[in-house]
């Protein structure tokens, strides 16, 4: 949405970070950044000009020439300083994030913390970049591998996690010796900018990270520019497909994380109260605006009788503004997203699903213009219904019924998405069967949102991910580096004579 002239006079401009300087864009077209709880315009983001995009990419390319030669141990020391600064400013970052996303303060701080965990993992770069070697594999020949950076990388990140997702990408890319161009969501750009300010404060060279703002035009520049070697993306399925196809057509590496339709399977032997609490939290937390939300509950056997208790638990949750400590979640990101959710709820009714709890008319006292959607519950949902097939990305829980665990597994494996799933049960045998047979990338056993810590990788699958190597963990190191193999032989006749060197090189 373009900014009107009156709003332009009263709102701060979001700056680009180009060549180590915070610059106001010379663009003529700006984008409103609004408070989801009030619709107030709190800033305006630029549609960065083509010339400014070129300057950012060129600066990153020039910086790569020297940054790649900095010892990995020194790069790691800078990252240690950065993660310490992120922790020091944790609550400040959380408040910035909450104000522009609509998340509750507690949820916003969680967003920041999960990003800090990846920055901490980046501090281990010297160990993560260790390669292999073998001595005397044949006739005095030694073989070793060398891990080295690939060049300028780009990240295109979504609105729903404006701290965590950028921190999935640029710390690991940069600590492994690459330079990076970040294009965050235009809907909440202030959090990524603050991350970049702290990055510079940590002592990194001023041009190894560039931050540019805008929409599709700026994204397409990154996807097609010959200097960009790799692209990391998180977003909706149609955009992820566009990003993957375009970047790979232009011979780039790409990891594109897309949408999801996550299922929680509930067996009759599960702890009822614990299961219901976890189900409701995972379905409506963050207003359902996360790709790991459990938006489908698969009630196996007699657990279909739990529906009244699930409804009662959902009725206790209410949305509110970011600083409302009693709110379970915040506003949806924008009015268009809220209307789309309401439309899908109506479509579910038309297609025959039973609307047990309707959140379309939700209001929050004092904030009549907020993008509010209350907890919503459907029963009698079946594959083929729009509310089952599409990712709603709102606080909407669909319940389906299955006669057995085998039936539940078959239903989920038939779904095109494969981001995350959970099973709640007291049976180790059932859990093992489920984790072995389910065709989903991340599986929780009595864990509602199975997002791995950064020692492992985020392993979405099927239609939820396009690419080969996933975010963070060991796979991310491989994504941002190349491996060179060196095969060498040295002859004894070449050994020089001379005395010992008694000086230890400390650098």
UniProtKB/TrEMBL annotation:
Aldehyde dehydrogenase domain ranges (all copies): 23-486
NCBIfam families assigned: MMSDH (TIGR01722)
Taxonomic placement: Bacteria, Pseudomonadati, Pseudomonadota, Gammaproteobacteria, Salinisphaerales
Family: Belongs to the aldehyde dehydrogenase family.
Top-level taxon of the source organism: Bacteria
Keyword Transport in annotation: no
This enzyme's EC code(s): 1.2.1.27
Name this protein carries in UniProt: methylmalonate-semialdehyde dehydrogenase (CoA acylating)
MF terms in GO: oxidoreductase activity
Coiled coil: none
Keyword Oxidoreductase: yes
Keywords: NAD, Oxidoreductase
């Amino acid at each position: 949405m373009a900014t009107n002239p009156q709003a332009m006079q009263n709102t701060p401009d979001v700056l680009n970070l180009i060549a180590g300087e915070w610059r106001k864009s010379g663009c003529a077209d700006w984008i409103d950044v609004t408070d989801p709880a009030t619709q107030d315009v709190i800033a305006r983001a630029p549609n960065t000009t083509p010339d400014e995009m070129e300057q950012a990419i060129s600066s990153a390319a020039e910086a790569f020439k020297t940054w790649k030669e900095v010892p990995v141990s020194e790069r790691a020391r800078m990252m240690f300083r950065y993660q310490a600064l992120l922790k020091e400013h944790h609550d400040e970052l959380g408040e910035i994030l909450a104000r522009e996303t609509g998340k509750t303060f507690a949820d916003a701080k969680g967003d920041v913390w999960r990003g800090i965990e990846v920055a901490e993992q980046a501090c281990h770069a010297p160990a993560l970049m260790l390669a292999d070697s073998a001595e005397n594999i044949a006739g005095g020949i030694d073989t070793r591998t060398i891990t080295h950076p690939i060049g300028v990388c780009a990240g295109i990140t979504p609105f729903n996690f404006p701290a965590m997702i950028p921190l999935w990408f640029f710390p690991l890319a940069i600590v492994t010796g690459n330079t990076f161009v970040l294009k965050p969501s235009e809907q909440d750009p202030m959090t990524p900018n603050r991350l970049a300010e702290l990055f510079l404060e940590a002592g990194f060279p001023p041009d190894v990270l560039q931050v540019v703002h805008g929409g599709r035009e700026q994204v397409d520049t990154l996807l097609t520019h010959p200097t960009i070697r790799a692209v990391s993306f998180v977003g909706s399925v149609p955009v992820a497909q566009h990003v993957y196809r375009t970047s790979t057509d232009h011979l780039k590496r790409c990891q594109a994380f897309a949408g999801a339709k996550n299922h929680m399977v509930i067996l009759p032997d599960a702890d009822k109260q614990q299961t219901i609490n976890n189900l409701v939290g995972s379905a409506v937390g963050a207003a359902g605006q996360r790709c790991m939300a459990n938006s489908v509950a698969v009630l196996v056997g007699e657990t279909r009788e739990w529906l009244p208790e699930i409804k009662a638990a959902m009725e206790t949750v209410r949305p509110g503004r970011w600083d409302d400590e009693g709110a379970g979640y915040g506003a949806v990101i924008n009015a268009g997203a809220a209307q789309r959710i309401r439309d899908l709820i109506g479509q579910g009714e038309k297609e025959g699903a039973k609307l047990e709890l309707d959140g379309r008319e939700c209001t929050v006292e004092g904030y009549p213009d907020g993008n509010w959607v209350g907890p919503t519950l459907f029963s009698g949902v079946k594959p083929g219904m729009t509310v089952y097939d599409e990712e709603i990305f709102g606080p909407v829980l669909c319940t389906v019924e299955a006669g057995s665990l085998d039936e539940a597994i078959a239903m989920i494996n038939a779904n095109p998405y494969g981001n995350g799933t959970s099973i709640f049960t007291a049976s180790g045998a059932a859990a093992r069967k489920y984790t072995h047979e389910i065709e989903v990338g991340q599986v929780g056993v009595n864990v509602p949102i199975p997002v791995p810590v950064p020692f492992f990788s985020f392993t979405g699958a099927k239609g939820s991910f396009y690419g080969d190597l996933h975010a963070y963990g060991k796979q991310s190191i491989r994504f941002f580096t190349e491996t060179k193999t060196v095969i060498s032989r040295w002859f004894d006749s070449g050994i020089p004579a001379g005395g010992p060197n008694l000086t230890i090189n400390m650098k």
